[in-house]
C-alpha cells in the first residue's frame, strides 16, 4: 500500500508541481469466478474466468481546477484478464478509455478513446446488469461500443434533460468520410424515471474500399423505480452492414456459418429486485432478424448478487439463448463471448 501511494504521488507530481486543486486516483475492479458453458459444438467447458459481472480493469483518473469553474481532467483505463494477468482489448495497455478533456458550466468535452453515447445508454439505462453476466450485448450488439479518435460533448443538466454528441474521425487519407462515426443521445432523469434515446452511425468504407454503406443503430431505453423493484425496457433498431455483428463469429452449432443481420430489431425487458444486501435480476432479450434468413434468438436469465460491503460482492447467474434458423448467438459475459448457448456463473467482485 505504501508503494502504491508513492506511485500515485509520483504520477501527480511528474513534470511540474501540481496546481492547487489537482488530484490523481488509482481505481479498478477485480472480478474472477467460475463459468460452466453448455450447448457448444465441442461440448461443455468449465473454466476459471475473469470479469464475468464487471470486466476486470485498472486505471488512473485525475483533474486540475483551473479557476472560474473550469477544470481539466483525464482518464486512462485498461482491461485485465484477472485469471491470467494479461491485458484485454487486443492486449492493449489502456484499451477501455484514454481521454483528456475540459469541463465547466458549459458541460464537458473529452477527446480520445471512449464509450459511445449509445453504448452508455445501453449499459446505464437499459441493462440492470450493465452488460455483465447474461449481458444484453449477447443479442443487442451494435457496431458502436467504443470509438477511438473521438470528440465527445456532454451538456449540463437542464430541468432533468441532458444531451451527448460524439464525432469519431475515420482518419483515412483522401477520404474524410471513410470510417467516420457520429453518435448522440438525449437523456432525461428525474425522480423514479430515467429515459434516453440514442443513435450511432458509422461509415463502413475504408481508405481502399468504398460503397460499403452505413451501419445505423437507434436505441430507446428507460427504467422506472416501482415500489418493490426497478423495471427496465429497451428497443433497438439496427440497419445496414455491420449494424448487428454476431457476438461470437467463431461459433457454429453444427450447421452453416451464421449470417449477420442487416435489418433487425431488439427488445430488452428486465427487473432488478433489491432484498436487503441481496439483489435479484430477471432479464429477457429478443433479437428479431427481419432479413430473409430470419435468424431470431431469445435470451432468458436470472442473476443473484450478495453485497458484503459497497465494494465487495459475490454473484451467481444462469442464462440461456434459444437460437432459430441457424442463428448461433452464444451466452457470454462482460469479458468473453462464451462457448455455448447456456452459461452458469459464480464469482467474486471487488472494487478499489
Tag the structure with descriptive keywords.
352 residues; 16-stranded antiparallel beta barrel; mainly beta
Short description:
The protein is mainly beta and 352 residues long. The protein contains 2 helices and 17 strands.
Proportion of residues in helical segments: under 10%
The portion of residues forming beta strands comes to: over 45%
Tell me the strand order in the biggest sheet: 1-3-4-5-6-7-8-9-10-11-12-13-14-15-16-17
Mean pLDDT across all amino acids: 92
What composes the largest sheet?
16 strands, antiparallel, barrel
* C-alpha termini separation: 12 Å
Low-confidence stretches: 1-19
Care to count the β-strands?
A: 17
Shape: globular
By secondary-structure content and strand pairing, the structural class works out as mainly beta
Number of distinct helices: 2
Radius of gyration: 21 Å
**What is the succession of H and E elements?**
HEEEEEEHEEEEEEEEEEE
